[in-house]
Amino acid sequence: MYSNQARLSNPVDLRLYTTLKIGGCAALFFIINEKDQFPAVEKYCRENFYLLGNGSNILVKDKFIKTPVIKLGRGFCYLRHNNSFLEAGASTPLSFLIKYCLDNNISLAEKLVGIPATIGGMLAMNASSFGCSLASRLQEVEVYDLRSGTQAVLKKDEIEFSYRCSSLLRSGLLILRAQFRISRGKDLKAEIEKRIKERLKKQDFSSPSCGSVFKNPAVSPAARLIEACGLKGVKKGGAQVSGKHANFIINRGGASYRDVDFLIKMIKDKVFKKYNIILKEEIQRWG
């Protein structure tokens, strides 16, 4: 059991909570472990707030972040299942889910291995890989609205999912838990190992990054367009367009928000001039 008070820390260095390791400090940083802790933080979140999952898709400005940051803690990290459904707490790392499914011979997320996200973040961003997404197997989610102090259970057909977005993300609802339809697994270990090898071959894990910076246009993967513009390996300060995967910007050490922002603007400009395509950012900017 946890205290009925949300844990407030301030200031908190957000570099410690993001995979790119860039950003300033949060003035208000709440860790919530139980539903009854939400009322204590609602008064701070009436106008706006940031919800932090695994911090893998975020670019934070190098300044004092006044907007409150909410993070669901260990109380929302759990997994359980029966013959038909699996329930996951929103703060559960995807890696925990994949191991749980492997141990229990459940087919659900094996193609998603390697995405550094929580279950809540996966659903909010509608993350996918190798043609697989958690949203495709979703039954329902429980959500909380910090602005109104209300709680609800939404069925899948009440949620809009689109490429790297959802109505959950747009509305600012906090996902508390999710329930998925499951089936028996087949050759799960081999499938997981196959997908890990493919990721290691194509993606850059040599330095901190926030994963794919841009959404893929309909005509071509963003990485292919960026590479064709000759931008692989281009540097600005401590930031660099990955020489392995052109849709990754990596932090080679001491990179700043401005360094990354410079590269993003340069990439957009070069791709537009060469292909008349406007690249849209997949990352979320804070600050």
Give a verbal description of the structure.
- The chain is an alpha+beta fold and 287 residues long.
- The chain contains 7 helices and 23 strands.
- It has 3 domains: 68 residues, Uridine Diphospho-n-acetylenolpyruvylglucosamine Reductase, domain 2, CATH 3.30.43; 108 residues, 2-Layer Sandwich (Uridine Diphospho-n-acetylenolpyruvylglucosamine Reductase, domain 3); 83 residues, Uridine Diphospho-n-acetylenolpyruvylglucosamine Reductase, domain 1.
- A 5-stranded antiparallel sheet has the order 8-9-17-13-14. A 4-stranded mixed sheet has the order 1-4-7-5, with no helix packed on it.
- The chain starts with 6 loop residues before the first strand and ends with a strand.
- The model has no long low-confidence stretch (mean pLDDT 95).
In short:
The protein is an alpha+beta fold and 287 residues long. The chain contains 7 helices and 23 strands. A hairpin with a 2-residue loop joins β11 and β12.
Low-confidence stretches: none
| Helix/strand class | alpha+beta
CATH class of the largest domain: Alpha Beta
- Radius of gyration using CA atoms only: 19 Å
Put simply, the count of helices is 7
Supply database-style keywords:
287 residues, alpha+beta, Uridine Diphospho-n-acetylenolpyruvylglucosamine Reductase, domain 2, Uridine Diphospho-n-acetylenolpyruvylglucosamine Reductase, domain 3, Uridine Diphospho-n-acetylenolpyruvylglucosamine Reductase, domain 1, 3 domains, five-stranded antiparallel sheet, four-stranded mixed sheet, 7 helices, 23 strands, 23% helix, 28% strand
